């Protein structure tokens, strides 16, 4: 059985490694999140918004030409059709409803590429709640379109000017803000990372993906379980959502796809489970890329959403226990897969999702297997990278 224990551990991974000053904030959430999430009025509002605002259920699409090419029955779970263009909004809707029930008046978030910042600014606009997004100064320059979206949605984007002026510096600023504003502020974390209860709470909000998948597969094929599910892993929230209701169905292979960047051993990579070791990052014990004396190694991937030096504790547990299989995909393979998918099915995937599609070339499966690929987001945001690859 795969489940989380009282203290927030999946096996030996997880927990809450936080500064004492942050303890009251995290503890308030830990003591209340489960009660809030299971209340009927919460469930009703959450599902109402997922349906009418996000556009759920997202289709489970049988990809005919893609299936013929790979000689398997391949379905795409269309998270790219969610409002805002990816799965991230499933989680931000859930968390803003929790924040409201904890009487929070102010939302903070940190963002690297800006996708989570946009998903957070979106739900704050929806609810009329103040939104502050911390973002590294360097990322603000690199991700101008998402910065403009956040501002359009009424969020304040605060630059993090210290250190490398990227994601981890933005995270430090957000934590400092939370410590200073414990009573009226909720911190929306964007993936299945961070101290307990975040990884489990986010996984449960995203688990709507596999809940729908089970019903849709049963309807379409007469069987609720596929032979394999493939999803890309940055922190791991879309994968956690796609795996969640299959975790204890041992007949379903779970394939977690990481970004190899220029190659697993190139020094320019984000293949955490391949080269990572145990340690603590962003408040939980997990696998991360670090030097022998525990310094975090800068990750690299062409895909901003996978460019993260750690992996959520659930995935560290699934991979190290053998329940999930990890595959790493280079930038080049992801680009090729994005072009192939665009021209075979007329769907331009996010660069992150393209890694999951590229895994088909590495997976050993039997002809005729049923395989679901989680299409975590659409590729509009990545057109510049795609265009550059064409030249
Ligand atoms: C952010 C993002 C990811 C990576 O985040 P996870 O938490 O690992 O899901 C993957 N795909 C898309 C489209 C994203 O925007």
Rg, Å, rounded: 19 Å
Shape, please?
A: globular
* Mean of all residue-level pLDDT scores: 97
Which architecture of the largest domain would the CATH scheme give at its second level? 3-Layer(aba) Sandwich
Specify the biggest β-sheet: 6 strands, mixed
Class based on secondary structure composition and strand pairing: alpha/beta
Helix content: 40-55%
Share in β-strands: 15-25%
* Bound compounds: pyridoxal-5'-phosphate
Number of continuous helical runs: 16
Please count the beta strands (DSSP E, at least 2 residues each). Answer: 14
Regarding quaternary structure, how should these chains be classified? single chain
Task: Tell me the CATH topology of the largest domain.
Answer: Rossmann fold
| Number of structurally distinct domains | 2
């Amino acid at each position: 059985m795969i489940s989380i224990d009282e203290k927030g551990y999946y096996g030996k991974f997880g927990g809450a490694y936080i500064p004492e000053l942050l303890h009251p904030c995290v503890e308030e959430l830990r003591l209340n999140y489960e009660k809030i999430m299971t209340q009927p009025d919460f469930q009703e509002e959450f599902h109402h918004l997922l349906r009418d605002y996000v556009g759920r259920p997202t289709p489970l699409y049988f990809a005919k030409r893609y299936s013929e090419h790979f000689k398997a029955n391949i379905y795409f779970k269309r998270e790219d059709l969610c409002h805002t263009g990816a799965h991230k909004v499933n989680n931000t809707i859930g968390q803003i409803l929790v924040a409201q029930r904890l009487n929070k008046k102010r939302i903070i978030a940190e963002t690297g590429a800006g996708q989570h910042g946009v998903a957070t600014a979106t739900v704050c606009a929806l609810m009329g709640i103040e939104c502050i997004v911390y973002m590294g100064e360097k990322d603000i320059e690199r991700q101008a379109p998402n910065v403009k979206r956040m501002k359009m949605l009424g969020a304040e984007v605060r630059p993090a000017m210290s250190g490398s002026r990227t994601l981890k510096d933005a995270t430090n600023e957000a934590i400092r803000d939370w410590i200073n504003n414990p009573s009226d502020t909720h911190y929306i974390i964007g993936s299945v990372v961070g101290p307990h209860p975040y990884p489990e709470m986010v996984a449960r909000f995203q688990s709507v993906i596999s809940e729908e998948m089970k019903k849709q597969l049963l309807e379409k094929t007469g069987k609720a379980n596929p032979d394999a599910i493939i999803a890309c892993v940055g922190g791991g929230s879309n994968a956690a959502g796609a795996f969640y209701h299959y975790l204890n169905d041992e007949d379903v292979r779970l394939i977690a796809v990481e970004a190899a960047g220029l190659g697993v051993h190139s020094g320019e990579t984000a293949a955490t489970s391949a080269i990572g070791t145990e340690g603590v990052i962003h408040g939980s014990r997990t696998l991360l890329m670090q030097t022998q004396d525990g310094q975090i190694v800068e990750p690299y991937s062409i895909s901003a959403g996978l460019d993260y030096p750690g992996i959520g504790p659930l995935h560290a547990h699934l991979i190290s226990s053998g329940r999930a299989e990890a595959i790493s995909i280079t930038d080049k393979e992801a680009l090729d897969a994005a072009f192939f998918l665009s021209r075979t099915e007329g769907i331009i995937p996010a660069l992150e999702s393209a890694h999951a599609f590229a895994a088909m070339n590495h997976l050993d499966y039997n002809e005729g297997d049923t395989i679901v690929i989680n299409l975590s987001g659409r590729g509009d945001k990545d057109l510049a990278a795609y265009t550059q690859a064409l030249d």
